[in-house]
Write a structure and sequence with these properties.
alpha+beta; Rossmann fold; D-amino Acid Aminotransferase, Chain A, domain 1; 3 domains; 8-stranded antiparallel sheet; 20 strands; 34% helix; globular; binds ligand MV4
């Protein structure tokens, strides 16, 4: 494999190309008209515009992307995350065109894309599942009988669901039929697949996922866990590795379980097996994500493994580069996702021009971003502007490092979620590791963070900054350390 087309945009396109360069593989970017000036387009050895800004006229056009790959004599296509990354039809078409899809087989993606098919596939592999049905419920009376056996509260889930869509909590028998009907309707309209099943509702669980790698020779490895419990409306906010709550035994047990899930679907490549983890330290298989994930950097930091390099070597037919025994956890890593959203205004996307943008630097910091100062953040895609990951010897040091790094950001022009991230990592519940998937709901409200500065405050801050600067110029030498009390109003809107 000498030339790879990256069928994605932004930070992940750049992240993939960086490893390609290190492997002496040349890169092709495909981009929409909205991304013409994006860093990933300039970074690539070749770049081709594939259409107008909307994803369904650019980044989702599988045929056009394959055509481009063939024209430029590409060997492999890396899909990144989102867009076409978990589309079994696309993976199949890539292979049929004589190119290598850097990811699992189409069939594995198809199985894991349906929760019911996934449950059926892992059935003979001794995988703990939440008590419930393993087939679509059809007869409401029959379903109610099962629900009563399981015990309320129960959860109705869409087989095709994702991100909490088509999910309904039912607290008592009298609401059951109504909620079942709603879930089926929602599943039908959202996914064109009305199949639903029921499970016992696990209250206050953690979301713990295991990174796995599988090669074409049937070797499998687990690269430990990421704790992604801190989410907001199924959007992850903080991810960390390792989890603050797993013992070594539990970690091995979950890792080996994740490997059995990979075997169950004949997996090849990098994948993530998601588990619910309850207050009694029991874990249950939820689903498998058949792609490289947004939060993969924290795993790379604690293991020292380049997951993209492993993906490419596996796609070439090479073996995984390390044994399970060679892997160990080194320190602690935390990632926060920085969005162009206003946390004081219901996380409304705040797109516009990134007037100022300076990312943190220094020991143990990794920033994955795809924008530069002066760029417009397009309205057409996910408003994530940056992933900030830190690595340190201990969890406590990593938290300190994260807060230091958040404070180093200089952003103006758009409102970001940095203030919200800082509030979360600084919170007692996060510091002590005592949190679950309801953290945001339980601990956060807009009043928890200072209100964005209005225009007058910004002018006052600027005036103060200039005054202090003039004063410092008179009294300090170049070696004098910064007092630490910057006059920047950090991470706030100033248009
Ligand atoms: C659950 C659950 C409780 N009990 N299943 C949410 C999205 C989908 N991936 C699975 N989800 C859940 N399934 C049972 N039987 C709670 C959730 C859930 C959740 C899971 C992971 C991370 C965040 C979550 C937030 C709310 C609900």
């Amino acid at each position: 494999m000498k030339k790879i087309l990256v069928a994605n945009r932004g930070e992940i396109a750049l992240r993939i190309m960086r490893t390609c360069k290190e492997m002496n593989i040349s890169t092709v970017a495909v981009f929409s008209e909205a991304d013409r000036n994006a860093p990933f387009v300039r970074y690539a050895d070749e770049a081709v515009c594939i259409g107008p800004p909307p994803s369904n006229q650019s980044y989702l056009l599988g045929d056009k992307i394959i055509e481009t790959a063939q024209k430029l004599q590409v060997d492999g296509i890396h899909p990144g995350y989102g867009f076409l990354s978990e589309n079994p039809v696309f993976a199949d078409q890539v292979e049929k065109a004589g190119l290598t899809f850097i990811g699992p087989k189409s069939e594995s993606m198809k199985v894991m894309g349906s929760k019911l098919a996934a449950k059926a596939a892992v059935k003979k592999y001794d995988i703990p599942l939440v008590p419930g049905t393993d087939e679509a419920v059809e007869d409401p009376d029959e379903a109610k009988k099962i629900a009563k056996e399981i015990g309320f509260p129960i959860l109705v889930k869409a087989s095709a669901g994702g991100g909490g869509k088509g999910m309904r909590i039912v607290h008592s028998e009298k609401d059951f039929e109504e909620q079942l009907k709603t879930a089926v309707r929602e599943a039908e309209s959202s996914f064109g697949d009305g199949r639903v099943f029921i499970e016992r509702y696990v209250e206050g669980p953690r979301h713990i996922e295991i990174q796995i790698l599988s090669d074409k020779d049937g070797n499998h490895r687990y690269l430990f866990e990421r704790d992604c419990s801190i989410q907001r409306r199924h959007q992850k906010v903080i991810e960390e590795a390792p989890s603050a709550v797993l013992t070594e035994d539990k970690r091995r047990e979950m890792g080996e379980c994740a490997v059995r899930v990979a075997k169950a679907c004949d997996y090849v490549g990098a994948g993530t097996v998601e588990f619910l983890y309850d207050a009694q330290d029991r874990f249950y298989f939820l689903e498998m994500n058949t792609r490289l994930q947004v939060e993969h950097p924290v795993t790379e930091m604690i293991t020292g493994i380049d997951l993209v390099r492993e993906q490419i070597e596996i796609a070439r037919g090479n073996k995984i580069s390390f044994s399970q025994d060679e892997l160990e956890i080194n320190g602690h890593a935390i990632e926060v996702r920085v969005y162009a959203e206003d946390p004081t205004n219901n996380f409304l996307p705040d797109i516009g021009k990134l007037k100022t943008y300076r990312a943190p630097e220094g020991p143990g910091i990794r920033v994955d971003d795809g924008f530069e100062e002066g760029m417009d953040i397009p309205i057409y895609y996910d408003p994530m502007i940056s992933k900030l990951s830190v690595h340190a010897g201990t969890r406590e040091e990593a938290i300190g490092r994260m807060i230091r790094a958040i404070d180093e950001y200089r952003v103006s022009g758009v409102t970001t979620t940095l203030s919200f991230c800082k509030y979360a990592v600084n919170h007692e519940a996060f510091r002590t590791g005592q949190f679950d998937t309801h953290f945001v709901q339980n601990h956060w409200s807009p009043e928890k963070i200072p209100a964005p500065a209005d225009g007058n405050e910004a002018v006052a801050a600027l005036f103060a900054a200039l005054t202090v600067k003039a004063f410092k110029a008179q009294t300090q030498t170049a070696e004098t350390p910064n007092s630490g009390t910057s006059n920047w109003k950090r991470n706030r809107t100033r248009r």
